[in-house]
Amino acid sequence: MRCGTGPLRPGPAAAAGGRNKSNRKITSKMAKTEKPAKTKKTVKRRTDSVAMAAAAAAAERAAARQAAEEAARRARHLKELSCASGAERELEELVFGDTVHVEEDDLLQCLAGPEQLNAPEREALQKDSSDSEVENEAKGNLLTKKPAWVDEDDEAEENVDMTHRYRKDFMKSDAEKTLTKKKLKRRLEEQFQRAMGGVPAWADLENRKKSKTASDSESDEDDDLLCRTGNFVTSSESLPRGILKMGICLPANQERFANGRLATVQFHPSAQVVMTAGHDRSVSLFQVDGIKNPKIQSIYLESFPVYKACFSVDGEHVIATGTHHRMFFVYDMMSGRIIPIQKVRGVEERFLRSFELSPDGSFMLVTGTSGYLHLLSMKTKELISTMKVNGRCTASAFTPDSSKVYSYSKEGEVFIWDVRSRKCLHKFEDEGSLEGKCIALSKNNQYVACGSASGVVNLYTTDGCLKEHRPKPVKAIMNLVTSATCVTFNPTTEILAVASRETDEAVKLVHIPSYTVFSNFPVFRRKQIYLAQSMDFSPRSGYFSIANNKGKALLFSCKGRKKSIVGGRVAECWHMLLRLWRLHPWRYSKAI
């Protein structure tokens, strides 16, 4: 109990309670002031989350809609594939067997695409691939290790004594008494390449690596080759240069030599027959076999020394002109008749000698005097038109398609004519030619050969002849020392034969791809050809014949070339004609 008149002081508990109440009031006031700010932030966060959820839901719905459309499209396609007609079902069973129904589901599943993987499977697959990458990287680091040591003696260059008698040939100068092994190796490689004509395929490492990859793909073909038997060694299609493999056969007219010089030798275009004609007024036919060459028949043309004779394109007629006659003969071999053509209306020539037949068998071109060329029809033997060159025409030739004529003048100019319009298309000068003698075109219409009086035979390309007035020859053949009087190509345009009738053994065979002369023909220091008058190759280049001034048709066989030239209907006609000739020789020709 406290006495006094002053105010009462509160106790400690009352003071603490008073402080707590004041603190609660202050806290409630602060809470009231902070509550609006917290509410605004919470509302904003909830609004953002709702927007994100709405966007995610929209994306999921779009993905689901797209997946549903893709599934519907695939289902529609699979339904179309599975709905096959009865004929298609039968065809499938016939081709694939009865298992087509069993494997149909597998086929449709393959067409539907790869199976989708879920998230755990994709993670496992990625983990396996990462492990394999780590292993490969570890292997690569293992292979790129440095060597443990380096031997200095291996890098030192060792010198080789070049004065040794086995190595003297590799010295290029007296100063090279010693060479390193690398240089000596290079010298040996150079000598080997010179001897072999280049780097062989088996010695070229780069080509061997490339061919190794190609050989892997050809292993199946090799297996197929080993599973078969037979002769797999065949001759090359291309003709090699340098040495020509030729065999000497009996003369083609062995059973009947001509009494005078032979003017013509020619092989039949489709039968195994050769024709000879000459100044003894006879035309003879022989069967070519390279062994006996039996005679088929001979016809005699009274008082008519033959200047030139030629088979028709179909091989059923022989056209022969004389040395001093205006007329010419046509011999029909199928009927055995000799048809004289007394005079061609419109052709005012004293003699009809040189002529050419078109490859299509439609025209006959007669070379006249004063540069005139007379174009006749083979069917009617009548004049179609006349063309004229400047000066005197010495030779002419048709192109393989019979559309153009090349005429060679004595002044060394070549005129190109269009057969259909009979107009001169182009003219060019033969380089270095003082007097033209003969001309020939290759069977593939690629080359033109012009022989002059100087003995030079210029070889041109037809493209250059048609475009230029003074073309440059691709090769000037200067192996003849007298006038080139005969040039001819073989059917495959691999050989060009050039000859001169003014000196003995003046025949050369030129390899066309390389423009080089075969060194083994004619045989050195062995006279057998004498004066060559005419030359011809068989249709497949199996035989080569030369008519000389001794009345012989020399025959040579080209080894590696096909010699069988018998053709179906024509061969039968020849055998029939031979039988008829043996039974009734007086009916079909006059025997000699």
Sequence stretches where pLDDT stays below 50 over 5 or more residues: 1-9, 12-17, 31-38, 564-572, 583-592
Rg calculated over all Cα atoms:
50 Å
Into which percentage range does the β-strand content fall? Answer: 25-35%
Shape: extended
Helix content estimate: 25-40%
Please describe the biggest sheet, giving its number of strands, its sense, and whether it closes into a barrel: 4 strands, antiparallel
Cα separation of the termini: 191 Å
Walkthrough of the structure:
- The chain has 592 residues and is an alpha+beta fold.
- It is 31% helix and 26% strand.
- The chain contains eleven helices and 30 strands.
- The strands form eight sheets. The protein has a four-stranded antiparallel sheet, with no helix packed on it. Strands 4-5-6-7 form a four-stranded antiparallel sheet, covered by helices on one side.
- Strand 21 and strand 22 form a beta hairpin.
- Helix 1 (12-82) crosses helix 3 (104-112).
- The chain starts with 11 loop residues before the first helix and ends with a helix.
Quick tags:
alpha+beta; 592 residues; disordered N terminus; 11 helices; 31% helix; 4-stranded antiparallel beta sheet; disordered C terminus; single chain
Please outline the helices and strands:
Blueprint: H1 12-82, H2 86-96, H3 104-112, H4 119-143, H5 152-155, E1 159-161, E2 178-180, H6 181-196, H7 205-217, H8 219-226, E3 246-248, E4 262-267, E5 273-278, E6 282-287, E7 295-300, E8 306-311, E9 317-322, E10 328-332, E11 337-341, E12 355-357, E13 363-367, E14 372-377, E15 383-388, E16 393-398, E17 404-409, E18 413-418, E19 424-429, E20 436-441, E21 447-452, E22 457-461, H9 462-467, E23 475-477, E24 486-489, E25 495-499, E26 507-511, E27 516-517, E28 532-537, E29 543-548, E30 553-558, H10 568-583, H11 585-588
Antiparallel strand pairs: 1-2, 3-30, 4-5, 5-6, 6-7, 8-9, 9-10, 10-11, 12-13, 13-14, 14-15, 16-17, 17-18, 18-19, 20-21, 21-22, 22-23, 24-25, 25-26, 26-27, 28-29, 29-30
